[in-house]
Amino acid sequence: MKNKLAWVSVTFVVFALASAVRADDAPPSTAAQIRKMDKGPDSIDVSNYPPEQQENYKVFASKCSQCHTLARAINSPYVSREEWSAYVAKMSQKKGSGLRGDSARVEKLRRDIISFLAYDSSVRKKDIAGPRTIDVSNYPPEQQANYLVFAAKCSKCHSLARPINAQYALPEEWTAYVDKMAKKKGSGLMGDSAEMKKTREQILSFLIYDSSVRKKALIERKTAAKSRYLGAFKPMLSRNASSLGARPRKAFSESISSREEPRSRISAR
Ligand code: HEC
Ligand code: HEC
């Protein structure tokens, strides 16, 4: 909600200050103002985009830089295909856009531009693509409480959209990722106090539960891929085990799971 308001006001300011001048041509003070409104880079490295989108980028770059630099579109908060369709329609209506009318040629130009912008947003704007909240009203009360901890702690540096729409789903993936995030400076998640441990556990518990609800299909795909992978290694593992005159399997798993003093493990080797 707060973010939406911020965007609305940013857009308002942009509209209020709108001038169809490029920074290069304008007097210094105006140029500075335009740069500030541009909010970031004015080109995109598309070398890793699919060839079709590299072509669409050329259309976008030539048509959408006639009045302002490309930075306007590149750093704007629009993300979804619907948002871009509406915005490109609006821009196209402007006099001199070369995108007005309903000839097949112009319609194709608009389609190409929208296609590019939607694709590019899905790559570069992960942070604001996809939902930023989860409806937890049907989650167990305990997980609703954990959600609040997650929402407070994991939105400090990026929006919650990051974790919510991430491709992580398995418990071990979340364990590793929460660990990684906690280690970042200023995360407010480091330390060994009981309270801090509980905070991390709550976040982890929520992410694992939430994935089991919202990411069932992804979990199934990942689990299947994992067992295929392990299956490919099994023959090799058992061959190694026998060639080493292996110890019984039990001893191996015990040495991993037991929290026993290291000495016994060292002497066992
Ligand atoms: C004929 C001139 C013209 C062309 C061509 C043009 N724009 Fe614009 N654009 C403007 C003006 C003027 C504004 C300021 C707001 C307004 O007047 O609607 C603007 C504002 C914007 C914004 C708003 C930025 C923000 O922060 O809210 C975006 C995004 C944008 N243009 C994208 C595009 C795209 C994408 C294209 C190509 C399809 C394009 N523009 C082509 C004139 C143009
Ligand atoms: C101190 C700042 C900070 C905090 C707090 C933080 N993150 Fe991050 N997060 C980052 C940065 C920076 C990145 C970009 C990738 C990187 O540097 O590892 C990132 C990236 C991610 C990504 C990767 C998204 C992708 O597209 O692959 C996920 C998922 C994520 N964070 C989840 C979380 C979770 C869950 C929490 C809460 C436990 C959290 N983050 C808290 C800084 C933070």
Describe the 3D structure:
By secondary structure, the protein is mostly helical. It folds into three domains: 123 residues, no CATH class; 74 residues, Orthogonal Bundle (Cytochrome Bc1 Complex, Chain D, domain 2), CATH 1.10.760; 51 residues, no CATH class. It has 13 helices and no strands. Helix 7 packs across helix 10 and helix 9 crosses helix 10. The longest helix has 28 residues. It is extended and about 65 Å long. The chain starts with a helix and ends with a helix. The C terminus is likely disordered. The site of one heme C has 22 residues, from helix 1, helix 4 and helix 5. The site of one heme C has 18 residues, from helix 8 and helix 9.
Secondary structure blueprint with pairings:
Layout: H1 2-17, H2 28-38, H3 51-63, H4 71-74, H5 81-92, H6 104-124, H7 141-153, H8 161-164, H9 171-182, H10 194-214, H11 216-243, H12 249-257, H13 262-268
Helix pairs in contact: 3-6, 5-6, 7-10, 9-10
Bound molecules: heme C (HEC) (2 copies).
**Sequence stretches where pLDDT stays below 50 over 5 or more residues:** 8-24, 242-269
Q: Roughly how many Å apart are the termini?
A: 59 Å
- The average pLDDT value, as a whole number, equals 79
Rg calculated over all Cα atoms = 26 Å
- Secondary structure category: mainly alpha
Proportion of strand residues: under 5%
Largest sheet: none
Provide the helix percentage: 55-70%
**Number of DSSP E strands:** 0
Categorize the overall geometry.
extended
From N to C, what is the helix and strand string?
Answer: HHHHHHHHHHHHH
Count the domains.
Answer: 3
Number of helices: 13
Distinct bound molecules: heme C
